[in-house]
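Incident log, structure service

09:12 report received: a user says their structure output differs between two submissions of the same chain.
09:20 pulled the input from the user's history:
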Amino acid sequence: MFKFIHAADVHLDSPLRGLFRYEGAPVDELRAATRQALERLIRLATEEEVAFVLLAGDIYDGDWKDYNTGLFFASQMSKLSIAGIRVFLISGNHDAQSQITKTIRLPENVRALSTRAPETILLEELGVAIHGRGFARRAVTEDISASYPGARAGCLNIGMLHTSANGREGHEPYAPCTVAGLAAKGYDYWALGHVHKREVLSEDPWIVFPGNIQGRYIREQGAKGCSLVTVEDGAVRSVEHRAVDVVRWHHVQVDATDADDGDEIVERVGQAIQQKIEKDNAVLHAARVTVSGRCGAHAELQAKTDHWINQIRAVATDVSNGEAWIEKVRIQTRAKTDLENIRAREDAVSSLLKSIASLDSIQEAMEALNSEFASLRRKLPAELQSGNEVLDLDSPARREELLAEVQQILIPRLLAGEDVS
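09:34 re-ran on a clean worker, output below:
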């Protein structure tokens, strides 16, 4: 019996863009997270006394700012060398030969598979054949797995591939392939990389995306880590997910329905965060909080939004003993006021509601607003103009959402006699 670790998408020293726009962000902890997660991976490998480690691409996050990134990786591989653990890796789209201009000599226990053609490495003492091919260039759009050799008789066959499989949201369609195509090779285990969410595509044979080892922003939620694989009598007996992340991202959704005031909502948020932390242990929790539901507290939340957002931040710190950081708070509550009944009335507020509701369906009105949107877009910070947090003002669906939010902010204030100028 022996064990091996399958990991991918380390994205060492990945730049965490936009951190400084978040007040109170633990910048140092977040920037060091990918390195610390790799250290935990190395520790796990030595503690479990694995025979080898497979790294299925994207060890880096593109070209290095300086040599320190490569030197750190080499130092971690040296720790495995001391423990007698071999490492086999393939390059992915982010660390393809076309992307990395600097090089560092790696310890002798590390073997990078060829980028020119599929390569097979035999570990005769274990009865293992490892097949794989790395990316020579960033955009590999053909199915490179089709050219992998057939299984070696009498061996446990492992395929290493950096791929989008049959396509995954948020990931470039690189090295596309199918489960049927991979299974046809006759391998016992496919060690995939590129997709950051853990996913087992098949158990016969095992075809596994382990996910990345450290979430880097809110779209990469939950426990991140690697797969610990146990082999017995020449067959895969178990595949376990082992978390190695040091920062864990969560989306905490809080139902504010029928809450009478802001204090009640803050209490609900505190309870939700406490439950999340107790259930999901990690060094640091990074959470996005969304408060939604029809409630009496809506007008109060809209009138003093900054106050209640900071109250939510404070309660998160309190219930977590400082182990939670709130990345963002979204207040998406709705008034208890029945807007449909108001719209049926014949008064100024009703007319305003009807005008707002008709805006998105009137081409002339939207074209008139386009210049305003263009002016607003130019003033947005760079991270809101592209990437994961893009604010798409050209999208009809997004405009509809914004108009609905305007109604929920404006109408309660008008009905309460507030100044909305």
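09:41 both user submissions now match this output. Likely a transient worker issue. Closing.
09:42 reviewer note: The mean pLDDT is 86. Residues 25 and 277 are 18 Å apart (CA to CA).
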